[in-house]
Amino acid sequence: MNAIKIEILGTGCKKCQQLEANAKEAIANLNLTAEVLHITDPIEIAKRGVMSTPAMTINSKVVSKGQVISVEQIQPLLQR
After folding, report:
1. Is the peptide bond before 54 cis (omega within 30 degrees of 0)?
2. What is the block-wise mean pLDDT of the chain (80 residues), using blocks of 10 residues?
3. Which candidate, 4, 8, 28, 11, places its Cα nearest to that of 69?
4. What DSSP letter does each residue of the chain carry, written as one string?
5. Which residues are catalytic, by number?
């Protein structure tokens, strides 16, 4: 399986940090290897078509925006 690349999009606020923590926990629960990046540059975030943060991409596909999704919501997204 190819390496998974996850991007957390947000300015570094508490919600963004929580989303990143949830993503890392979901990765650990599934025993996956993934690269997790935190994108804070508003221009880079806008390039991905995201206007509300926090947001998350998996392999460049936006899977969540404007909310902190839970570990349980992230896990099925990682298994596709």
Report:
1. yes
2. 87 94 97 95 94 95 96 93
3. 8
4. -PPEEEEEESSS-HHHHHHHHHHHHHHHHTT--EEEEEE--HHHHHHTT--SSSEEEETTEEEEESS---HHHHHHHHT-
5. 13, 16
Q: Which amino acid is at 54?
A: P
Identify the residue whose tokens are 């963004």: 16
pTM for the full model?
0.93
Rounded CA separation 19/50 (Å): 15
The whole-angstrom separation of Cα 14 and Cα 28 is 21
Residue by residue, DSSP assigns 56-78 as: EEETTEEEEESS---HHHHHHHH
